[in-house]
Write a structure and sequence with these properties.
Elements lengths: L2 E6 L3 H14 L3 E6 L2 H10 L4 E5 L9 H11 L4 E6 L2 H12 L4 E6 L3 H17 L4 H17 L3 H18 L5 E6 L5 E7 L13 E7 L8 H12 L5 E8 L5 H9 L6 E5 L1 H9 L3 H12 L3
Parallel strand pairs: 1-2, 1-3, 3-4, 4-5, 8-9, 9-10
Antiparallel strand pairs: 6-7, 7-8
Helix pairs in contact: 2-3, 6-7, 8-9, 10-11
Length: 300
């Protein structure tokens, strides 16, 4: 499993120094550092990481480390948390309820870096040596999909499905995903994925991948849904050539006919309906299964 470690501390120099030390100890790790309020808010939700090393006290910030930990637990089911602070005893009463989540890996007092790394290195090594296998990841994704599909509240339903698709793409290696992006013409795209992935097949597509999320189990994707989404894909000025429409329902026959009729251009839209989503979640390799779906619908 790739080590993707997010270090969060309101003191930038401390965050950078700790990330540097960990990066030297784990040369195969990708280190991400968040220090400002804007970075923390963005990186927690938009970056993929499977370990967060998190300070507790943020002087002058709206949130402290405990608030951020709750956000991590909510948006990233794959990440564990190591709390680091000189004030662990002070915050212990507020930290105790988080222990029941099973997501807190360890607590570590800040200290001189060499002594600190002697403590942190075996904790991090043990975590990655025993990280959940693909079946457990699939189970977590399946639970997220079921919750999104079964939600009754209309607003929550849409957001939960977008969050699920975000997790799906992060689980196969995509680091940066933007939500609810509007262009200059105020056209909104549910998700935009930065196409930076170490895969010879997927990386051949353009810089970004656009995704439309339709969480309406009783309503099929219709021809107009396809036309509207294709116009957004065509308007990216060559920055995106691949788009996905994910749906908890199915795709109407007329929509497939329209997609074939419009298949002459440089942009391609792949449909992933409820059946294909379940195939993805049942697969032992989600990335390879997604590539098979693309193969079945996109002709070079």
């Amino acid at each position: 499993m790739t080590k993707k470690i997010l270090v969060i501390d309101d003191e930038r120099t401390q965050a950078d120094a700790l990330a540097l030390k960990i990066g030297r100890a784990f040369t195969d790790a990708e280190m991400i550092v968040a220090s400002s309020e804007e970075e923390i808010e963005s990186y927690v939700t938009d970056k993929f990481y499977n370990l967060a090393i998190l300070d507790i006290r943020f002087d002058g910030y709206k949130k402290n480390g405990i608030d951020v930990a709750k956000q991590i637990i909510e948006v990233n089911p794959f990440a564990k948390i190591i709390f680091v602070s000189r004030f662990l005893v002070e915050y212990a009463p507020m930290l105790n309820p988080l222990m029941s989540t099973g997501r807190i890996l360890a607590f570590s007092e800040k200290k001189e870096y060499d002594a600190w790394m002697a403590e942190l290195k075996p904790i991090i090594s043990s975590y990655y040596d025993n990280i959940p296998n693909s079946n457990e990841v699939n189970a977590a994704l399946t639970a997220n999909y079921a919750s999104a599909k079964n939600e009754e509240d209309t607003y929550k339903k849409g957001k939960m499905f977008e969050d699920f698709i975000t997790l799906l793409f992060r689980s196969i290696g995509y680091n940066t995903i933007y939500k609810r992006v509007k262009d200059l013409a105020l056209n909104e795209v549910d998700l935009i994925v930065r196409n930076e992935i170490d895969d010879s097949f997927l990386s051949k597509f353009d810089k970004y991948i656009l995704i439309e999320c339709k969480n309406k189990p009783k309503t099929p994707v219709c021809k107009n849904d396809f036309i509207v989404f294709k116009s957004k894909l065509d308007a990216t000025n060559g920055m995106a050539s691949l788009g996905f429409i994910f749906t908890t329902s199915y795709v109407s026959r007329n929509t497939y006919i329209e997609a074939v009729r419009e298949s002459r251009g440089n942009t391609k839209i792949v449909f992933v309906d409820n059946i294909l989503l379940q195939q993805l979640l049942a697969s032992s390799d989600i990335k390879e299964e997604l590539k098979k779906i693309i193969d079945s619908q996109v002709k070079d």
